[in-house]
Amino acid sequence: MRIALLADLHANREATEACLAALERERCTHHVFLGDLIGYGADPGWVVDTVRAQVERGAVAVLGNHDQAAIEAPSERMVPEARAAIAWTQGRLDEAQTAFLRALPLQVEEDDRLYVHANAWAPADWSYVSGRAAATRSLEATAQRLTFCGHEHRPALYYAQPGPAGHFEPVSGQPVPLRGSRRWLAIPGACGQPRDGDPAAACAVYDSDDGSLTFLRVPYDHERAAAKIVAAGLPGAFAQRLLTGG
């Protein structure tokens, strides 16, 4: 089975459409959405409806911190611009879309895989896996062999070993064999708001038959997505991030 992995769509229709098309070309038959469907971008309703339709066809989706903020209240840990985007988003989601977000689980286990937005040790605290120490803590918190998460907005691949987790620097389009003798944590990167200096959308494909993981970067019309953010009256910094990838 070829599994499509998407994280941090952040209401970016153009990036989501481009990634879904790329993953279809990769012959993916199962989709996993690793949280933060909304926030920052100008098309929250479209993205939620698109993911909901995928879930109705058997996809998996988990709750992200921006999704939670939209159905409850923004955390004080969120910067003011992010809270403003959540308030704007709340006024553009209908009852069915809000109900879908409210029903999302914090994490899902599927075979030997864990899907979670932030980390495995405290999914609801929204702490980042931003380096080897945090990756080690997350790997130690689950018995699953593979952990797939988002939240960090930068692609990364870690593996368990004595001491701090080992780290691979992902290269787009190059399959990495996830050897069965190791336990792994992978962050596919942000579909809707990359922050690693590359404006191309990020996603990944896991092949459960041969055990390989392929990170992808997908060019899309980020200028159009940025212009829609400005036109909506959302903070301009969110548009600038799409233009620069950071």
TrEMBL record:
Gene3D superfamilies, per the entry: 3.60.21.10
GO molecular function terms noted in the UniProt entry: phosphatase activity
Family: Belongs to the metallophosphoesterase superfamily. YfcE family.
InterPro entries given in the database record: Ap4A_hydrolase, Calcineurin-like_PHP_lpxH, Metallo-depent_PP-like, Pesterase_MJ0912
Pfam hit, one: Metallophos_2
GO CC, one annotated term: cytoplasm
Residue stretches making up the Calcineurin-like phosphoesterase domain: 1-209
Protein name: Metallophosphoesterase family protein
